[in-house]
Every structure is written in structure tokens, then in C-alpha cells.
Design goal:
The complex is a heterotetramer, with 2 copies of chain A (92 residues) and 2 copies of chain B (140 residues). Chain A is α+β, with helices and mostly antiparallel strands and 92 residues long. Chain A has one domain (2-86): Ubiquitin-like (UB roll) (Roll), CATH 3.10.20.30. Chain A is 25% helix and 24% strand. Chain B has a 4-stranded mixed beta sheet, with helices on both faces. In chain B, helix 2 packs antiparallel against helix 3. The longest helix of chain B has 19 residues, at 47-65. Chain B has a single domain (2-124), classed as Molybdopterin biosynthesis MoaE subunit (Aldehyde Oxidoreductase, domain 3, Alpha-Beta Complex), CATH 3.90.1170.40. Chain B is globular, with a radius of gyration of 15 Å. Chain B is built from 3 helices and 8 strands; from the N terminus they run E-H-E-E-H-E-E-E-H-E-E. In chain B, strand 7 (115-121) and strand 8 form a beta hairpin. The chains are: A alpha+beta (92), B alpha+beta (140). The B-C interface holds B 10-12, 15, 19, 21-35, 82, 91, 93, 95, 98-99, 102-103, 106 and C 10-12, 15, 19, 21-32, 34-35, 82, 91, 93, 95, 98-99, 102-103, 106.
Chain lengths: 92, 140, 140, 92
């Protein structure tokens, strides 16, 4: 099954965006992002702390709906999901 | 009109169109690229979600303040100093509602709409930190 | 630009001119003839004094809120429903000052500038009562 | 000596405006307005109460400066003065 990962702003600059990736059923949100972010140490460090937990300012969305950081480790991704990972917003 | 777009808008035309029956006051907020030693500003949005959020904010402002009309146009792409970033036009029967509704909209945008700004300087660029540590409206 | 005049103004042009160096926010207030079962509105001013008062208010707003630019155009004469009565354009570095400065100006105008409005109806007309029992800025 | 009296809004409709009038030296503000307003009973009643005192909402100016109602009886007018008399303002 495939999902799409969209990074924005600083995360996009470090990791790219619109990354379509094959995942095995049962893959959890956190592990998918961890794997994807590992491709670039600076990108990984932007999103995760030294213990491998999300920085508290990171925002996650699944199909346009917010996912709490604490729920991400136990939230599975399913075929066709659009995952978004971004830093605090600064519009206006 | 609720939009995320690269093009600028004609504010005069928006004001004219905002004068719905019963209008006594129109308030316009125009956020502008400020000359903070930058060359340009680059704006980026999670567009589909940002538009949904703007629509939600406009609806909530309309209900809460009895607004008669709301426009929110947030520009993205590369903008130079002095250019319009965000234009909010609201109309209401009386001025307290128009001012409060306009202010509500900009504060909610700052708080939770997935848009980011990078200031481009001679030495490179810096992402503008959000005013709110967290920031996407979904968890409100 | 501070003026009492019969002619309308181009708000878009005023906004463009308000973007002085350092501007990050422009707020426009546009007071409009509301359709309160009226045919037209007739406005009258003690012009020399009203212009002086508007200039004083603009100066005070500039000082108090650090505004970078202020326009106040108050129209007189006969206006129809939907027409602009009063246009206030202010610019500032940041939005709190722009909103507060704009609001300060309109409240001070309501409070103390010698201008009067008569609503013309099918049956004749009625002078609009002021929002403040007394009302000329001189005794502040 | 001559002074000019300007009425505004409702007062203007009842009493006219830009009334240039001859006054004798020593004429006080209140007596000048009283005399002028007497030309029209409705105009007089709009400005003065049944005891002949200014309605408390009336605003007086001399050369663009506010004069308190309580001071008007002892404020003389002088040659060239512009006197303004008007109801509460309603701009904006």
C-alpha cells in the first residue's frame, strides 16, 4: 500500500515533500516519519529530539486532520493516506 | 471570497462588493511585507487545509459578530517589501462588530492556519517563527 | 490627508500611499450610509473647526500608537445608501497599533468633531442624535 | 462693532446661519444668542429651556474655542468674533 508524506517549510527544505512511499500494513505514523526523516540527519534532528521523540512543536496531520503527537505511535497509516508534518504556523 | 493565491487583489473592488444590505461599517486589514532588512519574502501554504481553515474562521466570525460579508485573501509565493500578504475585508451593521470580527479573523489565522513565511536576506533566509508555539487549528 | 469634502476618495490609492517605510499593517475603516429606511443622508460640518479637530486627533493617534501614516476623509453634503461617509486609513509596524489607532480615531471623531447627519426619509427627515450627550473636543 | 453667529444642524434650520449682527460693546455671549434666537420661538425653545437657561446639551464656541455654558453670561463678545452654537455632534 502507498501513502504520501508532505513536509512543509523548514522540514520540506531538509526532507523534500510529496514523498510517495510503499508501506506494509500495520505501519504506525511515528515509525513511518522516523524512517523517512532518517534520510537526512538535519531533517531528522529538526523533527525528533535525541531520544527519538517528536519535538513538542511538531504538528502532524493525517488527511487534513490533526493527530496528537502522543497518539502517533499507535495510529496506523492506511493505503492512500496523506500525512503532513510541519513546524508551527506563521501566516498572516 | 476566501482564497490562497499568488495574485494580488483590488482592495477597492472588494470593499465595494462587501457593502451588503445593512452595512454601516467596513473594516479592512492589510498585512504588508515589512522592511526588516529583507530582500523578499517567500510564503508557503498547505493549501487545501489552509483554505478549509480560513473558511471555518470566516464562518465562525460571521456567527460570532454578525458580519454581513467576509473576504480573506492570503497570498503565497515570493513577495517584495510593501506588497500585500493578507487582506481581510469585513462588513457589519455597526463598527464594534466590524472591528472585532476583523481582529478575530487575523488572530485566528496567526494561531492556526498552515502557512509559513521565510524572510530572504542578503545572507540567505530565515523562517519566521510562529506567534503561537503550537499552531494548527484542528486541535482547538 | 485630512479633509472634509463632498467628493469620494479612492481607498485603494490611499492604502498604497499609506505604506510608509516600516509598515507591516494597514487598517481601513469605512463608515457607510446604512439603509435604515432612509432615502438619503445630508451631512453638515463646522468645517474649519472640524478639520482642526481631525488634525488634532490624527496627531494624538500617531503619538499614542506610533502610527506611520494617517488619512481621515469625512464627507459632507448629500449621500445615498451605501456611499462612504468616513474613511480612516492608518498604517503601523504591527497590527495591534494599527487596529487600536484606527479605533481611537473613530471614537474621538464620534465624541468631539462638529459634524452632523440628517437622515432623509419619505416623511421628511431626522437629525441623528450624537452618541455622546455633549460633544465637542474642546473641553476634553 | 459686528460679530458673526453660526448655527448648525437643527439650530441652523430654525434660525439660519452666518448671521452678521451689530452689537454694542459689553454685550455678553448669552444675551446676544438670546436676542438672536428670539426671532423664532421654535429656535429659541431648541436652545433655551423655559427658564431662559441654555439646554445642557448646547455647545458654544467663540472663534473655534469651546465656551462653557456657565461662563457664557459673563463672557463679552468683541468686534470680529465668530460665535458658533450647535447641538451634540454626530459625525463618523
Amino acid at each position: 500500500m502507498t501513502v504520501k508524506i508532505r513536509f512543509f517549510a523548514r522540514f520540506r527544505e531538509l526532507l523534500g515533500t510529496d514523498i510517495v512511499t510503499e508501506v506494509v500494513p500495520g505501519t504506525m505514523f511515528t515509525s513511518l516519519i522516523t524512517t523517512t526523516a532518517r534520510k537526512n540527519p538535519a531533517g531528522y534532528a529538526a523533527i525528533f529530539d535525541e531520544k527519538g521523540a517528536f519535538h513538542e512543536f511538531v504538528i502532524l496531520m493525517k488527511n487534513g486532520k490533526r493527530i496528537e503527537l502522543t497518539d502517533a505511535a499507535k495510529t496506523p497509516v492506511v493505503d492512500g493516506d496523506e500525512i503532513a508534518v510541519f513546524p508551527p504556523v506563521a501566516g498572516g | 471570497m476566501i482564497a490562497i493565491q499568488t495574485a494580488d487583489v483590488d482592495i477597492g473592488a472588494l470593499i465595494a462588493a462587501a457593502k451588503k444590505q445593512g452595512t454601516g461599517a467596513v473594516v479592512v486589514f492589510d498585512g504588508v511585507v515589512r522592511d526588516d532588512d529583507i530582500t523578499e519574502m517567500e510564503l508557503e501554504a498547505y493549501e487545501e487545509v489552509a483554505v478549509q481553515e480560513l473558511e471555518k474562521i470566516a464562518g465562525e466570525a460571521t456567527r460570532q459578530f454578525g458580519l454581513l460579508h467576509v473576504d480573506i485573501i492570503h497570498r503565497i509565493g515570493r513577495l517584495t517589501v510593501g506588497e500585500n500578504i493578507l487582506i481581510i475585508v469585513v462588513s457589519a451593521g455597526h463598527r464594534p462588530e466590524a472591528y472585532s470580527g476583523s481582529r478575530y479573523i487575523i488572530e485566528e489565522i496567526k494561531r492556526g492556519v498552515p502557512i509559513w513565511k521565510k524572510e530572504l536576506t542578503k545572507d540567505g533566509g530565515r523562517w519566521v517563527p510562529g506567534e503561537h508555539g503550537h499552531g494548527s487549528g484542528k486541535s482547538r
